[in-house]
User: What shape does this take?
Amino acid sequence: MRRAGIGLFISSCLWAQIVFDKTEHDFGEVEEGPAAVYTFTFKNTGDKPVKLTSVKASCGCTTPSWTQEEVPPGGTGTVQASYDTKGRPGAFLKTITVQHSASETPIVLTIKGSVKSNKPVEKYTEVDGGLGWVKRRETFGNVKSTETPSLTFEVKNIVSYPIEFRGLADPKPMFKVSFQPTRLLPGQEGKVVVTLDGKAARAAGWKHQSGFYEFLRIQTTDSSAPEKQLVVNGSYEIVYTSEELAKAPKAAFSVMEFDGGEVLEGQMVEYRFIVRNEGKSDLIIESVKASCGCTAVEPTEKVLKPGKSTEIVARFDSKGRSGFQHKTITVETNDPLNPRALLHLKANVVSTSNFSPSGGAPFNLTPSY
Assistant: This one.
């Protein structure tokens, strides 16, 4: 009797079962507003009629409908999923749980996709008085002295009165600013075009392989904030002719890095870096800057004739310091191909606390001066 009962149970499970053509549907990107609708189809592959007893969505934004009557063996039925996209921009993933008479185990259907908002995207989010800007900071990237690149800033009049552009408050020879149009009516869009003249920048003293970060102040008739500010940045590179390079100065350092080894705290580390002009015209040492106040530097001469040399004295006071120390000295010259040389001064400072009360020195102490 027990075996017969098991046989009847297994047999009844095989009599009725349903199979969906697929259990997941991806809508992809859909427009906001119309409902996203998909119909899942199933088939009764058993020998007994099947009825869907419960169909429930994971949230109220998904409304299912389904075949209500029994589906005979070999027959088909449907479960329709409808996702309400209105007011729901962004990605979605929803499930529908289907219970049926063929099994106590539910079948889970999945719909997913992304709703594209139908609301216009506001571009002019940077507000300054009566003007809205898409952005007010932009980079030129790398600019050569032979180039004249331009940047365009999009702008819109967001107030009820006209606004006129008057020009730069502090004109700079390397920048030209134009307005399209010069006068913006309420709600009107326009452009501010900033052009960088690489040749004028060189004439104004911009250096080879230097960075720039410029504030451009624009005067307008906006009563709430008459002065507008744009920021432009980038790097600058001078293109030299072969004739210029043949006559140029050339800074040559015999050594660009000095390691003083181990020094006792409080001792001074000093090194004299030698720079020689191997070019054809005067080498001018424009500036010498240390990485911090604990390193003092002083060039003995600032103008070197061709073939002449000078010393840049670097001193590091180890007082109050311990451990490995790495200081740098930046030397700026008029060498067109090497306008900035970076010198390195290193030392390993041994703390005086390592001394024994008897006054013994730490092992392998090799102070350098």
User: Anything to note?
Assistant: The mean pLDDT is 89.
